[in-house]
Design brief:
- The protein contains 38 helices and 13 strands.
- The protein is mainly α and 793 residues long.
- The strands form five sheets. It has a five-stranded mixed beta sheet with strand order 6-5-7-13-12, sandwiched between helices. It has a two-stranded antiparallel sheet with strand order 1-2.
- Helix 14 (280-301) runs antiparallel to helix 15.
């Protein structure tokens, strides 16, 4: 028979549970609406490039991806895997299916096929333009899921909103930025979320999804090595700090086994998934976690004395296996000059490596280390919130929060080595900043609620609210107890002492949960200070939003293919020289003509002009690029011989001296010299410098004034203003009046930004003049061997 007490409390408990479930359902609906709005924000803020300019592909690499997607949508997946592209890297060619990360192309191709099957007539170009904004919304939702697993839904919503607008991510995901990072950041964050979800639940279902998400990341971007090294580092950290559990084993072991098997199916990765040093850390930790798991299993079935003996055997066997594996790995990589590491990976570990040994990597602007202002530009106020988020992750420290801390520490280091990896730092900074803001708002809003006039004037409500806050603080939870649950707790506290004597009643009254002074200072702040702090945080968020919108509209929306500038009277000038030059090539040259240029413009030339190029942005063959650099650095006659041996008919150079465009070939010329000199020793950088300075004026060296790049850039330049004043270098050129003997100018764009030259045909030989004595031929051949002026003869 039920007691009167239970009869009284029954309806109260039922009403409290119903109120709590209703409140949770309402909160879930609000969270869903906010997430939808965040997705709309992430998509719409990246449309400035389309609104201000037009729907066009940006930059250089996206044009290759667009061309590959066109081929995939037209010819199908099987022809894509077997596609040999003879329009790039002439005369070598390139196997596209085996040298490209197919994730982005397959994703956009699938979207195009699904959309057209629904009778929505979208072109491949339109799908490619809007792929990055769509996946930026997905990345924001993935950030919400990840942060929710670490610190709750409030922090998750804040992190999602921050990631939707962060400039560092916008720079790689605006409409038209059809590059691998467009989908890779979503895959990165989603893989981390599934790892944390598996770690928290111990579910094999989520572990399998984690391996599949990792497989998608491998298909999308070479940065997948960051995942396969960061997760083993976290697993090792958990083992060392005594946090091993079966959930940790389930989260890691299937990822290594299934993830490695799936990664090896990607043609561009293949057996590198098990043979390169970037993956060895995961295998070593895989062995360690099995040794630890075996030790824990033995501990559960043996007595303490027997366990010590077994542990000695297990540890000895584990060490022997680890030593054997390490020896095998050392033997495998010892034959490689880079010890199994790729050039980019070695550059991350040793920032000076590329500048010493691989100038082709160091020549890329996005591989340079960032400056301090770039941090403020790309993550803005998040740089100041990240330390607060790290502190919040230590209260309390869990497996998931320790992973986020490790993520931010490693990403900060890598972003300091390469400015491109600011993109990896952005999600981590948003997650930590979201945690910091959420925790700060929790403390400040509770402090304001606790000191409201209606609550502060009623001591009983204040005490009850304090108990609620103390309990939630001790449990590490930010949930609010239902008001209907408070009377039940209070009545139970009153009825229990009534059944005992007065002495015990006094002890119970003395033992009521009272907060310590430290907790009081953490939880309750003065009302004025709390209100001011909330206002300051709101202003900080408003400043962040304004900066992000400005960055999206002005800094990162302009496509590199179309340039603009503003005049003093506010007028807008559009420089469409690149498309003008590629259109001329497409309409005025033969389909089989070969075009030589520096590798930066290879993808655009192939995609927009449909002409064969010698080198492009893939940069897989350093010797071929060095050959082009050598030709550009050589005198006109030797350059003509090199280009003629490669069947080149046209040479394209980019020149910004007229309009002040700084990213022209003259500013890149020293990298051509360095890369060419790395393969052909007769090209020496000091020959192009005057007292260690790079000059193009009257003080320039004769080697510089007579090289092909100088002549093709400054030919007829003096006719523009009569002085030959270079607006980029801000000086008058040294050699103003000269003629070309082996090249002829065939086209120069309206603003002189792109200049195209044609190789003159070889002169007819006159029989009498070509006959030389045997002695003269031997002398000339000795001179050629001694000087090594032309690497091809």
């Amino acid at each position: 028979m039920a007691s009167p007490e239970s009869a009284v409390n029954g309806p109260t408990m039922t009403a409290g549970a119903a109120s709590k479930s209703l409140r949770n359902a309402f909160g879930g609906v609000i969270a869903f609406i906010i997430l939808v709005l965040i997705g709309v924000l992430a998509f719409s803020i990246r449309l400035f490039s389309v609104i201000k300019y037009e729907s066009v592909i940006h930059e250089f690499d996206p044009y290759f991806n667009y061309r590959v997607t066109q081929f995939l949508s037209k010819n199908g997946i099987y022809d894509f895997w077997n596609w040999f592209d003879d329009r790039t890297w002439y005369p070598l060619g390139r196997v596209i299916g085996g040298t490209v990360y197919p994730g982005l192309t397959l994703t956009a191709g699938t979207i195009w096929k699904v959309v057209n099957s629904l009778n929505i007539p979208l072109s491949v170009e339109t799908v490619c333009v809007f792929t990055a904004p769509i996946f930026s919304a997905f990345a924001s939702w993935a950030a919400y899921l990840l942060t929710k697993e670490v610190k709750g839904p409030g922090a998750g919503l804040t992190a999602a909103a921050l990631l939707a607008m962060v400039p560092s991510y916008i720079s790689r995901s605006v409409a038209g930025s059809y590059d691998n990072e467009a989908v890779a950041i979503f895959a990165l964050v989603f893989t981390f979320y599934l790892y944390i979800k598996t770690l928290n639940t111990g579910s094999l279902f989520y572990a399998t999804l984690n391996a599949l998400a990792y497989f998608y990341m491998v298909c999308s971007w070479g940065g997948y090595t960051f995942i396969i090294n960061l997760i083993p580092m976290h697993v090792l950290l958990c083992i060392v700090t005594g946090r091993y559990s079966s959930r940790l084993y389930i989260a890691y072991a299937p990822l290594v086994v299934l993830g490695t098997l799936l990664a090896s199916l990607v043609p561009v990765v293949g057996f590198n998934a098990v043979l390169t040093s970037e993956h060895f850390a995961s295998f070593l930790v895989f062995i360690i976690i099995h040794v630890v798991a075996l030790a824990y299993y033995i501990k559960g079935i043996l007595s303490p004395k027997m366990f010590k003996v077994a542990v000695t055997l297990v540890v000895s066997a584990g060490l022997a296996v680890c030593c054997a594996v390490i020896a095998i790995l050392i033997a495998v990589v010892a034959s490689s000059p880079t010890k199994g590491w790729s050039g980019r990976s070695l550059t991350l570990l040793d920032p000076t490596y590329a500048s010493k040994y691989i100038p082709i990597i160091a020549s890329v602007s996005e591989h340079q280390p960032p400056t301090w202002p770039s941090y403020f530009m790309d993550i803005n106020v998040l740089a100041f919130l990240v330390p607060a988020g790290i502190i919040a992750c230590f209260m309390p420290l869990t497996d998931s929060s320790s992973f986020v801390i490790l993520y931010i520490v490693t990403s900060v280091y890598f972003s300091g080595v390469m400015v491109r990896l600011m993109l990896v730092l952005a999600p981590a900074a948003c997650i930590l900043s979201g945690i910091a803001l959420s925790e700060a708002f929790n403390v400040l809003t509770r402090s304001i609620k606790f000191q409201l006039p209606g609550i502060a004037g009623n001591p009983s409500i204040a005490v009850r609210m304090w108990c609620i806050m103390s309990t939630s603080k001790e449990n590490g939870s930010s949930t609010v107890v239902a008001p209907n649950d408070i009377p039940k707790t209070e009545e139970a506290a009153k009825e229990k002492p009534a059944k005992k004597n007065r002495k015990k009643e006094k002890e119970n009254v003395e033992k009521k949960p009272t907060p310590s002074k430290t907790e009081k200072r953490l939880l309750v702040l003065p009302l004025e200070a709390s209100v001011i702090a909330v206002l300051l945080l709101v202003l900080l968020g408003a400043f962040y939003v304004v900066h992000c919108v400005w960055a999206a509209a002005e800094a990162y929306s302009a496509p590199s293919i179309v340039l603009t500038s503003h005049s003093n009277d506010g007028g807008l000038h559009v420089f469409d020289d690149f498309r003008e030059a590629y259109s001329w090539l497409s309409h005025n040259t033969d389909v089989d003509d070969k075009v030589a240029s520096w590798w930066d413009y290879g993808y655009q030339t192939t995609a927009m002009a449909n002409r064969t190029v010698l080198v492009d942005n893939n940069t897989w063959n350093n010797t071929h690029i060095a050959t082009v650099g050598t030709a550009m650095s050589s005198p006109e006659k030797q350059a003509w011989e090199i280009f003629h041996s490669l069947d080149v008919k046209y040479v394209l150079v980019v020149f910004g001296g007229v309009v002040g465009y700084p990213s022209d070939d003259i500013n890149k010329f020293l990298w051509m010299v360095r890369i060419g000199g790395g393969v052909f020793p007769h090209i020496k950088e000091p020959d192009y410098l005057r007292d260690g300075q790079y000059r193009i004026d009257a003080q320039a060296t004769p080697t510089m004034l007579n090289c092909l790049m100088y002549k093709l850039s400054y030919f007829r330049f003096v006719e523009t203003d009569g002085k030959g004043f270079d607006r980029v270098r801000r000086t008058e050129i040294g050699k103003k009046h000269f003629k070309l003997t082996h090249f002829e100018e065939v086209f120069t764009t309206h603003h002189w930004m792109v200049r195209i030259y044609k190789l003159k045909p070889q002169r007819n030989r006159i029989r009498g003049k070509t006959k030389k004595s045997k002695s003269s031929r031997s002398v000339s051949s000795k001179r050629d061997v001694r000087g090594k002026r032309n690497p091809w003869h």
